[in-house]
Write a structure and sequence with these properties.
183 residues, mainly alpha, globular
Amino acid sequence: MKNLKSILIFTATVFLISLGYFLAIYPDRPADPEHETFLREMGEVFGTLGLWALLIIYGRTLVKLVFGQGGLAQRLVPEEYDVSALPPVKALLNVLNRTHIYVGVAAIAVILLHIAMVGLHADILFFPAVLALVLWQGVFGFFLTWRFSPQELKKASYVVHAQFLTGIMIGIFSVFGHLLLDD
């Protein structure tokens, strides 16, 4: 319960700081001119796909936490657990665990395509932060699966990659950044 309280405090802190930044730049932010081009429209499709991929990835973490696949502290160093959940949840977790790597790679690819086609909007600090966090997750996820990674690097990658806090920041920053654009 202490870890849940820490996560809620972290989430509230990131939310309030992000809200403060949002409110500080919102009044002076010029409206984003709407450029309805084929690339921009395709970029929006890739953005939607990236959102769904991230929901699947972090939904897997929530399912594991809700159905007893380790406490919040164990999510920092994920291991293979015996599923003590109901058979439908067990089947769902098996599918999510087997496809996690592929969904993660797809998420990074479609988010990068979204950014390339729609634009980074580097003047809004939320977007470079999201890009850095997504690449951060990808790099450390790669070290977990690469067979030539030294054991020490794999251990460090577990701690960094499995943090639910990164997903919280990606979500909050993405929402506030898109709110600034969708005036």
